Amino acid sequence: MSIKISVEKVVTGDGEKSSKILDIKCLPYEKLPVLYLEGKDPVVFRSTDKKGIVLRHGKDLPYELRIGIVYPEDMFIEILAHISKAGKHLKKVNEELSCLRKEWNGKVVYEI
User: Label partner for 52 (CA 20 to 30 A): which of 31, 75, 80, 98?
Assistant: First the structure.
């Protein structure tokens, strides 16, 4: 599943280009592989209240992107870059798990 973020582009009263978050679709923490969630690579998952997403990178404090909040465009672009890196990380983990399952899964009979 891809992450889907719906935004409304707005210009604030001080003339700053910004994006207001309207909706976010993202997998919850409990549906993501442990290999994805652990380690130093960036991760993204739906917040427990379902009103945003949590962005985490290694041991850094997590950051949240929240529905209804207006983000300056430069900050929003930075957040999108983080989400993109997390998506690539998830794809890599899923490919590794898929290969491991193909190699390992199956029935075996041990006769001793």
Answer: 98
